[in-house]
Amino acid sequence: MTDDVSLLAGYLMKAKRILVFTGAGISTESGISDYRSKGGLWDRFQPVTIQEFLASEEKRKEYWRTKCDLYESFKTAKPNDGHKAVAELEQMGVLRGIITQNIDGLHEMAGNSHSLILELHGNNRETVCFSCGEISPWQDVYERLSQGEEAPLCKRCQGLLKPNTISFGQTLNPAILETAVTWAQDCDLLLALGSTLIVEPAASIPRLAKRYGAKLVIITLSPTPLDALANLKIEASIGQTMKHAMNGVQRQK
Fold first, then answer.
1. Which residue out of 83, 107, 114, 121 is catalytically annotated?
2. Is it true that 1-29+79-121+172-253 and 33-76+122-165 share their CATH fold?
């Protein structure tokens, strides 16, 4: 192990309440396109606000073209070593919870309990109707898009369908944010995995944990505004780093 990974393994062994905060970087290692990087979704598609989605059928069609592109990667995406390491932390009984900016559902697919996952921006694997509130699996609407529908409507009530995610112009669920704050105040180690730590208010969570006495470890390939606050910053693959660190933990048990 490198010195950084050995130090990370030491933090993991000593911690009793580990809070994991994940961003797009952990999911790109599973083949899911991110939004901001060169070649990402926002490079290829213009973001559609919730106001535009509700007001314009053309904007809804544009929005669904973006989602259809993202759904293509969902068909084959599987949890990687980073997701599996986080699931292992739960099995060890030291996971306080997961706060994720991602909408891909890979943490739950990796084996983490639904009750320990806070999805700040919702879940792209569900579709919700704005009128009747029915929630259905993403595969249902993906099949309709694949067959040529451009802006699918609810089969039950003909209301507008949308992935069960937070769009531009929508506010985050205040109950989820409140729980995130509580978890941040109650952890002794926060692992920030694959997040640029720029988007607010989510990015304030690691800062809050640090203020309440937790150690802060950041693993991501790019600089973040909180690098100077971190006890450890590793610029490397999340999956490989976490896999090696967890191997080190197991050897010491």
1. 121
2. no
List the chain domain ranges: 1-29+79-121+172-253, 33-76+122-165
Q: Name every residue whose Cβ is closer than 8 Å to that of residue 108 and which is 6 or more positions away in sequence.
A: 114, 117
Walk along the chain (253 residues) and give the pLDDT tens digit of each residue.
Answer: 689 999 999 999 999 999 999 999 999 999 887 655 444 454 455 789 999 999 999 999 999 988 887 787 778 899 999 999 999 999 999 999 999 999 999 999 999 999 999 999 999 889 999 999 999 998 899 999 999 999 999 999 999 999 999 888 888 889 999 999 999 999 999 999 999 999 888 889 999 999 999 999 999 999 999 999 999 999 999 999 999 999 999 887 6
Element at 124 (helix H, strand E): strand 122-129
Nearest CA to 5 out of 243, 227, 230 is that of 243
Q: Active site includes 107? A: no
CATH class of the 33-76+122-165 domain in this structure: alpha beta
The pTM is what?
0.90
- The CATH architecture assigned to 1-29+79-121+172-253 reads 3-Layer(aba) Sandwich (3.40)
50 exposure class (CB count in 10 Å sphere: 0-12, 13-18, 19+): middle
